[in-house]
Write a structure and sequence with these properties.
This is OFA family MFS transporter. It is a single chain. By secondary structure, this protein is mainly alpha-helical. The chain has two domains: about 180 residues, MFS general substrate transporter like domains (Growth Hormone, Chain: A, Up-down Bundle), CATH 1.20.1250.20; about 210 residues, Growth Hormone, Chain: A (Up-down Bundle), CATH 1.20.1250. It is about 80% helix and about 5% strand. The two termini are about 35 Å apart.
């Protein structure tokens, strides 16, 4: 049987594993119960999430190079083992330092071997539809919180904060280990016939593709020697910053700025997660048709405008702006892999993607810290909203430059 006929089976397995790897978005559910149990301050415990984000985004730069010699299956299984063992060990937390090392570093390393690898793998499965593949995978990863958050909240209410990590370890092991057997290596020369380029437009009697794999397959060393790589990382960092700021502070913003009750804020956060998931899926598909940079220009425009709306609105309009930002953040997370393929080729995607993924780590520090620091200044969140609006303008300009440079190459 041809690989093309079975690749959807492999894609579904990758999506199931990504769903289980998305525990990071459930952190806010763990945070308050752990604070109350150990009597830790908000700044002390929130550093745990920051450490995990940094580890899960920076570690692939080193670990990603082992994917090829180990093979995707073995690499993922090692990641599953580290991830599950880390969650089990988190059950025995007795100090903040232990939590930093086990949940922040060990679980972070497990995630770093799962999500980036699965994202690159999905792009190789569908080299002619990398936007669609990235959107499906990112939607699974981000959408996990829709399942895990309420499950965790219910379990914590009955059994406490620490045992829930053992519950997740068991669930993930039961689901992810069998799924890993459904992962198959993608042939090096796999290119579905007749579908190498999508979203073509008529140009001088020929179709000029808006998307498609780069003519040259760059190694990671060659990629790092291009100025284009650094501009893309900055643009993606600016794009993800707004979403990560909102995801990290949504409950506090809704309660303190809009005077929502904790229960009402929790419902809104659930809807925000849904918009995030659909943004990942929808904009990934759209980028295959309209082109990555055109979609990024749209996302920066909506984020910038929505941030300005947040400074002047309240009630329903305020909440709708949060939904828009969340959807656009989801859209940016689905751009990483396709943009890597478009600019640096698909052959070395597994390694090259890891170097682009660091943008998510940078945004994970900038966004939440920007909101926390401006709030500490005593003026609420408006300064943070305005700052991100300005950063969106910068991101828009950088994307225009990248689009113009890509046009010249054609």
């Amino acid at each position: 049987m041809e690989f093309k006929q079975v690749r959807w089976r492999h894609m579904i397995a990758a999506m199931i594993m990504a769903l289980c790897a998305g525990i990071g978005y459930t952190w806010s559910v763990f945070q308050k119960p752990l604070m109350e149990h150990f009597e830790w301050g908000i700044e002390t415990i929130s550093l745990t999430f920051t450490i995990q984000v940094l580890i899960s985004t920076l570690a692939p730069v080193y670990l990603g190079r082992f994917q090829k010699p180990l093979g995707v299956k073995n690499y993922l299984r090692i990641g599953i083992a580290i991830y599950v063992v880390g969650l089990i060990a988190t059950m025995f937390t007795s100090s903040i330092g232990y939590l930093y090392i086990i949940y922040g570093v060990v679980v972070g390393i497990g995630i770093s071997m799962l999500y980036p690898c699965l994202m690159a793998y999905s792009g190789k499965l569908f080299p002619e539809k990398t936007g669609m593949a990235a959107g499906l995978l990112a939607c699974s990863y981000g959408g996990g919180s829709i399942i895990w958050a309420p499950l965790a909240a219910n379990f914590i209410g009955k059994h406490g904060a620490l045992p829930v990590f053992g519950l997740f370890a068991a669930i993930f092991a039961i689901v992810m280990i069998p799924a890993s057997f459904m992962i198959g290596e993608v042939p090096e020369d796999f290119r579905p016939e007749g579908k190498k380029d999508l979203a073509g437009v008529e140009h001088a009697g020929k179709k000029t593709p808006k998307v498609g794999s780069a003519a040259k397959d760059y190694t990671w060393q060659e990629m790092l020697r291009t100025s284009r790589y650094y501009i893309i990382v900055i643009a993606l960092t600016l794009g993800a910053t707004a979403g990560l700021m909102i995801m990290g502070h949504a409950s506090t913003i809704l309660q303190e700025v809009q005077s929502f009750t904790p229960e009402k804020a929790a419902v809104i956060i659930g809807v925000i997660s849904i918009f995030n998931a659909f943004g990942r899926l929808g904009f990934g598909f759209i980028s295959d048709r309209l082109g990555r940079y055109n979609v990024m220009l749209l996302l920066f425009t909506v984020i910038g405008g929505s941030m300005l709306v947040l400074t002047k609105s309240e009630g329903t309009v305020f909440v709708i702006a949060l939904f828009a930002i969340s959807a656009c953040y989801g859209g940016f997370t689905s751009m990483f892999s396709p943009i890597c393929v478009d600019n640096f080729g698909i052959k070395n995607l597994a390694v090259n993607y890891s170097f682009l993924y660091v943008a998510y780590g940078f945004a994970g520090v900038i966004g939440p810290q920007l909101a926390a620091r401006t709030k500490a200044m005593g003026d609420g969140y408006n300064l943070a909203f305005l700052t991100v609006a300005i950063l969106s303008v910068v991101g828009f300009a950088l994307t225009l430059y990248l689009k113009a440079a890509a046009g010249k190459k054609r």
